[in-house]
Amino acid sequence: MNGRSLYQSLPGPAALELKNITRRWPGGEPVFSKLDLSIPRGSICCLLGPSGCGKSTLLRCAASLDTIEAGETLVGGEIVTTPSPERQLILQDDRQLFPWLNISENILFPVCRNITGSAEGLLEMVGLADSGSLYPSQLSGGMKQRAVLARALAAEPDILLLDEPFGALDSEIRKRLHRVLLDIHQKRKLTILLVTHDVNEALILADTIVYMGSSGKLSQPEDNPLDDKRNMENPQFFQATMMIRKRYGFLME
Amino acid sequence: MKNSFSPDTNPRRWLYLVGLLVLWELIRRISGVNPLLMPPLEDILMELVHGIFKGMLIRRWLLSMALVCGGLAAGTVLAMILIVISSTGRGASSFLSFISSLMHPLPGLALLPLVILWFGTGTPAVLFIIIHAVLWPIYVNLESGVRSLAPAWTSYARILKLGRWETFIRISLPGSFPHLISGIRTGWARSWRAFIAAEMVFGAVGILGGLGWQLFESRVMMDTPALYSALLVVMLTGMAMEEIILARWENRVRMKWGEPDNTGMNTE
């Protein structure tokens, strides 16, 4: 593999570890069972897989929002059973922001019990410097997702759990938000678990890629085959996309 | 999305009203019906103008509005208190849900015999009927609003480790605001009808009496122009409050909340 291997570059306890976890549907059928996933601190792991395979459920388990029937979730080596602000979840959902608050108030929502700073720095970081006084209903889908990202950052998380956050956006806005996310990742040294079914997105963002099959089984994590220059015009990019599609034998997008 | 049960708020409806009044006058003249039963439009309008500028009508209208709006405010506060109680646990929620299922379909007028026993026939009795008419639709709507909050909001409350009370105050209550306004709209329509009917049964509220009393008094005195002018005021007030104030308010809030329009305001 030519890509960076963050497993080797960052030793120590994994930022997020799912050990032997099982989650069942209400009828008793397993969504997935005895599943293991380990994400090193400061890395971006993309979880690829077809719709309905259980990726989002896995993410909710990682956030401790869904109860697991067996196994354990570890954050920084410690077992966790309840959600916490250190693990922020961002969804594809259009209604994540609170419509009765403006964007600045939304962003400061996690800290407004003891306001320690203003929203300006965060708004600037996500490219919404002039939009703090607007309400969510006045924003486009891309702007809303930036605001959600800024709100998540306001809680100063260690881990971002992203469930197809750019899935409903057009490709230009998606590209811009990829850059925003990579910048933030670099500045804040966050650990990110991103669920997507878009191979291109995974290749642009991921340090490691994991594939979840329709039976809920996870592949071994593998390093991103591309080097740091991950633009889609690069001929290597197309080859890597085809390689991943071929390897996992599924059609995505 | 158009709800087929939502009111049509097309401004042309005010023209329809003018058309109906003209039709009234035409029918009256052609049929030659007794003017006591169908007074001339001119007499009704003169009575209306006189009642507004010199007579009792405006004062009675103000008293009616004050009582209904007071009852509406009291009912809203009570509904919010009940929602707070219902959010304290599954038992409280289930019990209040049961009580609201019992009380919501019960017409206020069906309670009249009991209300007379409890409060007599004065203002407290009428206020009781108004609050009963308002409380349950607002409670049922608020309950539905709290239950149908965006899942992303409730998940976010859990991620931030907000307590039950903080989640209620910071997320559930503001999040269900469009439902609260829907409840107020229904409550307004019910309370306005209940007030007019109750006053006609209980008699004047206070020394002056409200619009219900005006209707009753006009009938007893066989003053049909005054009777029709009071009826016109009752209808116009109900329509104006519903279409000019409440439906527009609900529409604005629903748009801001990103919810589908339920008011019929955006339909052609």
Word description of this protein:
- The complex is a heterodimer of chains A (253) and B (268).
- In chain A, the strands form two sheets. In chain A, strands 6-7-8-3-9-10 form a six-stranded mixed β-sheet, sandwiched between helices.
- With 253 residues, chain A is α/β, with parallel strands linked by helices.
- Chain A has helices at residues 6-9, 55-62, 103-107, 120-125, 141-154, 171-188, 199-205, 235-248, and strands at 16-24, 30-39, 44-48, 70-75, 78-80, 87-90, 159-163, 191-196, 208-211, 222-223.
- In chain A, strand 4 (70-75) and strand 5 (78-80) form a beta hairpin.
- Chain B is mainly α.
- Chain B contains eleven helices and no strands.
- The longest helix of chain B is centred in the last third of the chain and has 34 residues, at 224-257.
- Chain B starts with 11 loop residues before the first helix and ends in an 11-residue tail after the last helix.
- Chain A binds chain B through residues 60, 63, 65, 82-85, 87-89, 91, 93-96, 98-100, 109-110, 135-137, 155, and chain B through 150-153, 155-156, 158-161, 170-171, 174-175, 177, 255-258.
Summarize it:
The complex is a heterodimer of chains A (253) and B (268). Chain A is 30% helix and 21% strand. Chain A is of the alpha/beta class.
How is the secondary structure organized here?
The complex is a heterodimer of chains A (253) and B (268).
Chain A: H1 6-9, E1 16-24, E2 30-39, E3 44-48, H2 55-62, E4 70-75, E5 78-80, E6 87-90, H3 103-107, H4 120-125, H5 141-154, E7 159-163, H6 171-188, E8 191-196, H7 199-205, E9 208-211, E10 222-223, H8 235-248
Parallel strand pairs in A: 3-8, 3-9, 6-7, 7-8
Antiparallel strand pairs in A: 1-2, 1-4, 4-5, 9-10
Chain B: H1 12-31, H2 41-53, H3 57-86, H4 90-103, H5 112-119, H6 123-147, H7 151-159, H8 164-175, H9 177-202, H10 211-220, H11 224-257
